[in-house]
Amino acid sequence: MAAIIQKYFPDLTEKQLRQFELLPALYADWNEKINVISRKDIENIVEKHILHSLAIAKVIQFNPGTKILDVGTGGGFPGIPLAIMFPNCEFHLVDSIAKKIKVVSEISGAIGLTNVRAEQARAETLKGKYDFVVSRAVTAFPEFLSWVKKNISKENHNSLPNGILYLKGGDLNDELSGFEHQINIFDISSFFEEGFFETKKVVYFSDKNCYN
């Protein structure tokens, strides 16, 4: 397990490697009690969930103190792997389904994460401000943006302006039409060589997109 993570992130500490090592068995155990990951995917959790989440860490290295909101986190993706990767950042993981948040809380506690807050909530009701909002394709991008735009802080502290980092797959042309000057699309296959990532992307949105 740690080998594939270490292959792409060679500077991890022993503590981070241990935390990543613990995740597959913990998720397998909790998935028997509360189904948060498909039975098929639980066997490929390292590639399809953990490494996939870490594609965001190839787009940006969050500075210490960065506040990140994970909307529709499900069982904790991408939030938990990112919280391991960036222990000096603050992560707020939200989902509307209570049992999923229970899994997030239990797994975060089991691996000793102190930078994760898990909450049952709908994105539309959240009041706080964050540097970045992350998510894994919970809905079409325009609708997602309408939920979370209010939560993006205007004060920038990172190499990229504050915004959204959205993990999506497939053809995004129609979905992202009209946002051309506010987005950049990163092919995850340029970061990771596994075939699963061939059509996977990180969509970065910002009102102050420095790439354009």
Explain what this protein looks like in three dimensions.
The protein is an alpha/beta fold and 212 residues long. Helix content is 34%, strand content 18%. The chain is built from eight helices and seven strands. It has a seven-stranded mixed β-sheet with strand order 3-2-1-4-5-7-6, with helices on both faces. Helix 4 packs across helix 6.
List keywords for this structure.
single chain; alpha/beta; seven-stranded mixed β-sheet; 18% strand
Largest sheet: 7 strands, mixed
Looking at the structure, what is the overall shape?
globular
Question: Strands of the largest sheet, in order across it?
Answer: 3-2-1-4-5-7-6
Radius of gyration: 16 Å
Helix content: 25-40%
Order of helices and strands: HHHHHEHEHEEHEEE
Give the total of beta strands.
7
Number of helices: 8
**What is the arithmetic mean of pLDDT?**
93
Low-confidence stretches: none
Structural class: alpha/beta
Layout of strands and helices, then pairs:
Blueprint: H1 2-8, H2 14-33, H3 39-42, H4 45-54, H5 56-59, E1 67-71, H6 79-85, E2 90-95, H7 98-110, E3 116-120, E4 132-136, H8 141-148, E5 163-169, E6 183-187, E7 200-205
Parallel strand pairs: 1-2, 1-4, 2-3, 4-5
Antiparallel strand pairs: 5-7, 6-7
Quick take:
The protein has 212 residues and is an alpha/beta fold.
